[in-house]
Specification:
Length: 241
C-alpha cells in the first residue's frame, strides 16, 4: 500500500511538472499500480488523489485497462468516479475481449480509449484472430461514436486508422470529437500524416522510476508484456521522435 501511494505521488508530481512547464498533457494511471489488487478502496483513494491534482488545471485522467481479472473493477472505478461528479476521467476498452462491444454500449457519453489490448487471455473470452480483433475494434468504435462518446482511437494499425477515418467522415464528426493515440516512437510517419490531415494525436509516454520498476515486475509476472515494454523503453530512449 505504501508503494501504491508512492505511485500516486509520482502522478501528482507529473501533473505539477506539466503545469510548471506549460505542457498540454494528461496522465494515464494503472489501477493495479495504485493498489487495485490489494484493496479496491485504497485504489480509489489513490485515483481520487490524482484527480484532485488534475482537476484544478482541467487535465484529464485516463484509467488504463489491464488484464481481464481487473476489467469489472476498473469499469466500476470509472463509473463511481463519474457518478461522483468527476467529468475529466475515462476508461479504456480492449477490442480483443469478446465483452467489449457490450461494454461500449454501456459507456454512452463517456471519453473512452479503444485499443486492441495487450494481455493474453483465455480463448473463451478473447478473440485471437487478427481479423476478428479488427472487426471487434470497428464495431466497438461505431458503438462509441453513435453513443456520443469522445473516442480516443489508440492504434498503430494503418488499416484500422483508415477505417476509423471513414467512420468519423460518415458521421461528419469534427476533429474535437475524437482523437488518435499512439506510443512514442512507433509508426511516427502514420501519426505525422494524421496531424497533417488535421486530426488530433496524443502520444503516450511512459516515465519515471516507479514506471520502470513497475514494468520490470509486470514483465517478470507476464513475459508476454515484453514487446509492449520494449517499445515503451525505446520511446524513452529516443525522445522527440
Ligand atoms: C496510446 C495507447 C494506449 C494503450 N493503452 C492500453 C491499455 O490501457 N491497455 C491495453 O491492454 N493495451 C493498451 N495499449 C496497447 C494496445 O492494446 C496494443 O497492444 C498496441 O497498441 C498494439 O496494437 P496496434 O493496434 O498498434 O496493432 P498491431 O497490429 O499490434 O500493430 C500495428 C503495427 O504497429 C507497429 N507496432 C505496434 N505496436 C508496436 C510496438 N509495441 N513496438 C513496435 N512496433 C509496434 C508494428 O509495425 C505493427 O505492425 C495502448 C496502446 C496505445 C497506442
Amino acid at each position: 500500500s505504501f508503494e501504491a501511494e508512492a505511485i500516486a505521488g509520482e502522478y501528482v508530481a507529473a501533473l505539477e511538472a506539466f503545469e510548471r512547464d506549460g505542457l498540454d498533457a494528461n496522465v494515464s494511471v494503472k489501477p493495479t499500480g495504485l493498489g487495485l489488487k490489494l484493496d479496491y478502496d485504497l485504489c480509489k483513494r489513490n485515483v481520487e488523489r490524482v484527480i484532485a491534482a488534475a482537476e484544478p488545471t482541467n487535465r484529464f485522467v485516463r484509467i488504463d485497462m489491464e488484464d481481464s481479472t481487473t476489467t469489472d473493477d476498473t469499469l466500476r472505478l470509472f463509473r463511481e468516479l463519474r457518478d461522483e461528479g468527476h467529468g475529466r476521467v475515462g476508461p479504456v476498452l480492449q477490442a480483443s475481449l469478446k465483452r467489449t462491444v457490450a461494454d461500449s454500449e454501456s459507456l454512452a457519453g463517456a471519453s473512452v480509449r479503444l485499443c486492441k489490448g495487450i494481455y493474453v487471455e483465455p480463448e473463451s473470452i478473447q478473440f485471437r484472430d487478427d481479423g476478428a480483433v479488427r472487426t471487434s475494434f470497428v464495431r466497438a468504435l461505431e458503438t462509441l461514436l453513435d453513443g456520443d462518446c469522445y473516442a480516443a482511437i489508440a492504434t498503430h494499425d494503418e488499416w484500422l486508422v483508415d477505417r476509423a477515418l471513414e467512420l468519423v467522415r460518415e458521421r461528419s464528426l469534427t476533429p474535437e470529437k475524437y482523437e488518435f493515440q499512439m506510443l512514442l516512437g512507433i509508426r511516427a510517419e502514420l501519426g505525422d500524416r494524421l496531424v497533417a490531415e488535421g486530426h488530433r494525436l496524443r502520444i503516450y509516454v511512459p516515465y519515471g522510476r516507479q514506471w520502470y520498476e513497475y514494468s520490470l515486475r509486470r514483465l517478470k509476472e507476464n513475459p508476454k508484456v515484453a514487446g509492449y515494454i520494449a517499445a515503451d523503453t525505446l520511446g524513452r530512449l529516443v525522445p522527440g521522435r
